[in-house]
Amino acid sequence: MRFALGKWALPLYTVLAFIYLLIPIAYTFVFSFNDSFKSNISWRGFTFNNWLNVCGEPGVCDAFGTSVLIGVVSTVLATILGTMIAIALVRYEFKARSQVSLLLFLPMATPEIVLGAGLASQFFNMGVTKGLGTVIVAHVMFCLSFVVVTVKARVASLDPALEEAGSDLYATPAQVFRKVTLPLLTPGIMSAALLAFALSFDDFIITNFNAGPVDTFPKFVYTAAAKGIPAEANVIGSAVFLVAIIAVVLVQLNSARKQKRLLAGK
Amino acid sequence: MATEFVARGSNLDLVGIRKEFPGFTAIDDLDLHIPAGEFFALLGPSGCGKTTTLRLVAGLEEPTSGQILIGGKDVSHTKPHERPVNTVFQSYALFPHMSVLENVAFGLKQRKIADPLKRASEALDLVQLGHLAGRRPQQLSGGQQQRVALARALVNRPSLLLLDEPLGALDLKLRREMQIELKAIQIEVGLTFLHVTHDQEEAMDMADTVAVMNKGHIEQMGAPEKLYDRPKTVFVSKFLGQSNLFIGKIVETSANSLSIDVVGYKISVPKDRAEKHTGKIAIGVRPEKADLFQNKPADSSSQNLIGPGEVKDIRFTGVSNQFLVDVPNIGLVTVFEQNEGNSTVELGDQVWISWKVEHSFGLADLPADTLDEE
Amino acid sequence: MAFAAFGHSGGSKSDFKTPRKTSVKVAMALLIPGMLYLGLFFITPLVSLVVTSLEVPDGSGEIGRYAYGFEISNYWTVIETYWPHIARSFFYALMATILGLLISYPLAYFIGVKARRWPILQGLMLTLVIAPFFISFLLRTFAWKQMFANESLIVTTLQSWGVLAPDQYLVGTDFMVIFGLTYNFIPFMTLPLYTSLERLDIRLLEAGSDLYANPAKVFARVTLPLSMPGIISGTLMTFIPIAGDYVNASSQFLGSSETAMIGNVVEANFLRINDYPSASALSVLLMAAILALVTFYVRRSGTEDLL
């Protein structure tokens, strides 16, 4: 009896842990179908209206659009800057290596509130008006280190002989980068970009300090929380969740299939 | 920048090459001439500078000083993509994001040579992999990947093909097969091959000329059989096969031979097989050139003789029996006897060792552990 | 999602031995834009924060107008005024980190060690661990608030059982804030733990049970020490953001004025009452405390190569 319990305790625990992790997601999803009136607090009946008429709630779609715009611009900038640093760190020898590493590590070890307040105080001292630009500046800053860490792992796993083979086979340094290095780094760069977008899209604290009048989706939710978050926000949250989770599962299945094909080929 | 599509190999000349890395000198004043169409092997232990030499020729490193000439043209400071040289990398370095065919066609496409895919398939046929053209490199076995790497380099008809331990990752049986194949291909395409390896059998088996490298310089260079028959330094005598060395002072010099005194034994070597003719010298003999005798043979001026010594170890390797004999005051001497099924020597027996004077060789230097009491 | 990256970075060096290229020009061209960016928008803001923290009212009597000064006493003032918030922040962060570790370890162990035989299940479970990241942090937290709201089924049930007094509620209590903080940062703990447990050689466990026999001893002497890098990065990666969080503790979400943390004070001072020096002084204190903690931790554990 004791033996059987020991065998099943861990799987059972795992199931419970996942239920715990997923409860708020389920809650958000369920309440996106609530036939709510003003605040979306108690269950009043099932409806598709919130999904069919997402933008019905004033401001929510604008906030969502702003978040996507900020996310895309910040991701592109952070990914370019971060990839350059990652390549330099792995492939080149230079003196200030440990200082560079420290400078990249610190933003990740700094609480968001300090990052947010610091930038806000700098903008204030310099007399910069807060807006879309200041949010993007802030987002690129805190995404940068995460891009470097992610791409760096990929560069480190890339055999330098591949690039040497490229130049040995008559490719100029620029062609080697375009035809060999970049395609091989793409998976790493893509996951770095996705990470940066997710960080930017979901950021509230740093954004709140530097957005001024600009309303992002998390800011909208925060403001709305005082009187109850409208069901339309649940719709957007749930939709983003579904898109992301489907994308991740597809990528996983695809790589599992590739793995199988490679094994079968041998 | 694109080089002409030559079909024949070129000479390679290294003149006074020196390569320093922070903290150490990898290559110290290296001169080397490799004639067109030759299969040349650079042999040496790891860290001897052979791979650095190869990378210098490929253009992947720049020499600190000295000149690199390919077909008489100075390429010392040109970039790798501007050199008419191709490399088979140790890790093969096949592009994982391209098919086998695309890998082989890569260099041709870079140089905008007509019909790259057709030429690439022909090159794959040459290495018997035409049927795998559409696969990804990761789907091939190690031996197949090695052949793709070879085809990818050969298809460009380089003046010089560089091979960086290309067989190192293969198991012994496959390695022997690939050695034969590689040699056959070299004869067929007639290119200059520069092959870097630490495997002495591989070097001797395939190369027309072998250069033995040690600590950044070439110790000795020549045809494999010459190198083996007449090593000139202690390092070469030990790295290329095995040698028994006897150290003594030259006590007698005649018109065509010299003799040294080794704790009372007189050991002779033909004058033209000795690197020096006065003072202290190391004289060597290969274990398979020596014979064992259970009774003392008669003295002869054409034979060197030492003994008696005690048989300390007998190793049976199939083709031969290897004996380790402890000769008083001299130390351990190794003797290989062909396994003809009639050996009666046993462990602990007292034996004499004898070999022809003409099989001795006199070295230019002394083993590092020799005490210098002139 | 972010800090998961840490789990993979434990001292990762290039896998290949070819010497690094020495072209300083190219290296600088690749590095300078990003470094300049961090200098301009990470380092100078920190300096700006220190400068602001020492400012004094400019004498105009208007709210939010300050002049340069060197008023170190600003720090004593904020410590005196806000020490309960400071203490509370670190207490919450400590509790939530410990709870997070206790909840995450068995989960990470199951995914990283027990589920190795089924890679697809392993991948699926990992996706589930990071699934909360795909839905807004604020929506997740708000969902808990609704579930534990004063009229909710959970609270009325607990009241009818007598666990809670008839006029006792959950939202706004220390318990609720710690609950929310724990929940929100579990993936940051689980992923680094998973990464180090996933690398654990099962043969070592077998050798351990061969030598120590008792599963508890094998865990204490083999599994736990070998997963230490994961525990270190996991606890750092949860403790730091929790100490600076203010969403969970705010009265719109799970807290009340009784649960305000450093973050809430900074937010209020900076964005609402425009007391920039106090907000900055508190931020600098928080940053200093975190840096001291990280340095201590890294020194103790020897994982200096965090990036």
Structural features:
heterotrimer, A: 266 residues, mainly alpha, 11 helices, B: 374 residues, alpha+beta, Rossmann fold, OB fold (Dihydrolipoamide Acetyltransferase, E2P), six-stranded mixed β-sheet, disordered N terminus
Question: How would you characterize this protein structure?
Answer:
- The complex is a heterotrimer of chains A (266), B (374) and C (307).
- Chain A is mainly alpha-helical and 266 residues long.
- Chain A contains eleven helices and no strands.
- In chain A, helix 6 (132-156) crosses helix 8.
- The two termini of chain A are 46 Å apart.
- With 374 residues, chain B is an alpha+beta fold.
- Chain B has two domains: 12-229, P-loop containing nucleotide triphosphate hydrolases (Rossmann fold), CATH 3.40.50; 242-373, Nucleic acid-binding proteins (OB fold (Dihydrolipoamide Acetyltransferase, E2P)), CATH 2.40.50.140.
- Chain B has helices spanning 50-58, 100-110, 116-126, 142-154, 172-189, 200-206, 224-229, 234-239, and strands at 12-21, 24-34, 39-43, 65-70, 73-74, 85-88, 160-164, 192-197, 209-214, 217-222, 244-253, 257-262, 265-270, 280-285, 291-293, 303-316, 320-327, 331-338, 350-356, 361-362.
- Chain B has a six-stranded mixed beta sheet, with helices on both faces. A five-stranded antiparallel beta sheet of chain B has the order 13-12-11-14-20, with no helix packed on it.
- The model of chain B is unreliable at 1-6 (pLDDT under 50).
- Chain C has two domains: 2-53; 75-306, MetI-like fold (Orthogonal Bundle), CATH 1.10.3720.
- Helix content of chain C is 67%, strand content 1%.
- In chain C, strands 1-2 form a two-stranded antiparallel sheet.
- The longest helix of chain C has 40 residues, at 73-112.
- The two termini of chain C are 16 Å apart.
- At the A-C interface, helix 1, helix 3, helix 4, helix 5 and helix 6 of A face helix 2, helix 3, helix 4, helix 5 and helix 7 of C.
